[in-house]
Amino acid sequence: MQVYTTETEQVNAIKRFFFTNGKYLAVGLVLGIGALVGWRYWLTHQTNQLHNTAAVFEGLNNSLASGSKEGVAAVEKFANETDNVYGVMADLELAKQAVAQNNLAQAEKNLLTASSKAKDENMQTLSNLRLARVQLAEDKTDAALKTLELVKGKGWQVMVEDIRGDILAKKGDIAGARAAYSTGLGLDGPQVIKNLMKIKLNNLSN
């Protein structure tokens, strides 16, 4: 490393450095600023796009409530073309509509799509919990148990054990159902669900 003993030598060294490397520094600075501006533009674009998508979803969801074929078709088109949280929510609403019409096969299809599309863990979990419920209603008890295995978050385990108990009870595994409900009652979770599990557990005992 070269040592400069006077202020003049230091200034001259700095000048030489910028004369030699100035072009590269300028390019690097431009690229850095360009990347920053591009990133901010992308974030703004994504935020605006999400707001626009939310507005479209709200309108379509209102039309879906009417139960018309046109409304369902519009939400289906939106769900197929939208690869974000609102696309997942559209699939969930379509599944809800299908359940109301007792079309469990369609509801299962919508929920499978929602689960595979969801990038957010909570949305994925919600999709899988509803899917397990629908599979239980279809008497697909083994498939429902496998779906529950996909739910990992601790905050959802009370619901998991509640559904697991229902599945095992339907399979005739009373001991397994009792164990699931008992496990759920020992976990932190919504009291309303735990109250229901107490009733189910008492009914098993009787």
From TrEMBL:
One of the record's GO molecular function terms: protein-containing complex binding
InterPro entries, A to Z: SecYEG/CpoB_TPR, TPR-like_helical_dom_sf, YfgM
Domain named Ancillary SecYEG translocon subunit/Cell division coordinator CpoB TPR: residues: 15-205
Compartments reported by the entry: Cell membrane
Gene3D superfamilies (UniProt xref): Tetratricopeptide repeat domain
Topology versus the membrane: Single-pass type II membrane protein
Highest taxon in the source lineage: Bacteria
Main location: membrane
Gene Ontology cellular-component terms listed: plasma membrane
Keywords for the protein's UniProt record, in alphabetical order: Cell membrane, Chaperone, Membrane, Transmembrane, Transmembrane helix
Membrane spanning residue stretches: 24-42
Family: Belongs to the YfgM family.
Protein name: Ancillary SecYEG translocon subunit
Species of the source: Xenorhabdus kozodoii
